[in-house]
Amino acid sequence: MTDELALTGLECFGHHGVFEFERREGQTFVIDLVLGLDTRSAAETDDLSQTVDYGSLAMAVKAAVEKDPVDLIETLAQRIAALCLLESGVEWVRVTVHKPDAPIDATFSDVALTITRSKTQEGPP
């Protein structure tokens, strides 16, 4: 059984997209994370080293979004998931990449992709 640690609404500015103007001008991306991990040891010891330092993780994810432009949010989501799975104790991660300013010629509120990745094949329950 795993617990879930969520970090939602992390705003980042990146230069991702298929179109040249997206790469040139950049835009805001919003990242939501849910990490599956066992937090019992951290709760018992009250020791940050026994869990995920979500402040440090937030800064690492922000840096990952702000570097090396890619065409697709699918690629960006995979990059973020791989980074999260490097954290000790994280069994699985659910990443949502929001692209609220996507170049769509229609009224919309958001474009979002959610992926789930795990260190094992099973993933979250």
TrEMBL record:
<protein>
    <recommendedName>
        <fullName>7,8-dihydroneopterin aldolase</fullName>
        <ecNumber>4.1.2.25</ecNumber>
    </recommendedName>
</protein>
<dbReference type="GO" id="GO:0046654">
    <property type="term" value="P:tetrahydrofolate biosynthetic process"/>
</dbReference>
<comment type="pathway">
    <text>Cofactor biosynthesis; tetrahydrofolate biosynthesis; 2-amino-4-hydroxy-6-hydroxymethyl-7,8-dihydropteridine diphosphate from 7,8-dihydroneopterin triphosphate: step 3/4.</text>
</comment>
<dbReference type="Pfam" id="PF02152">
    <property type="entry name" value="FolB"/>
</dbReference>
<keyword id="KW-0289">Folate biosynthesis</keyword>
<feature type="domain" description="Dihydroneopterin aldolase/epimerase">
    <location>
        <begin position="5"/>
        <end position="117"/>
    </location>
</feature>
<dbReference type="GO" id="GO:0004150">
    <property type="term" value="F:dihydroneopterin aldolase activity"/>
</dbReference>
<dbReference type="GO" id="GO:0005737">
    <property type="term" value="C:cytoplasm"/>
</dbReference>
<dbReference type="InterPro" id="IPR043133">
    <property type="entry name" value="GTP-CH-I_C/QueF"/>
</dbReference>
<dbReference type="GO" id="GO:0046656">
    <property type="term" value="P:folic acid biosynthetic process"/>
</dbReference>
<dbReference type="InterPro" id="IPR006156">
    <property type="entry name" value="Dihydroneopterin_aldolase"/>
</dbReference>
<comment type="similarity">
    <text>Belongs to the DHNA family.</text>
</comment>
<comment type="function">
    <text>Catalyzes the conversion of 7,8-dihydroneopterin to 6-hydroxymethyl-7,8-dihydropterin.</text>
</comment>
<keyword id="KW-0456">Lyase</keyword>
<dbReference type="InterPro" id="IPR006157">
    <property type="entry name" value="FolB_dom"/>
</dbReference>
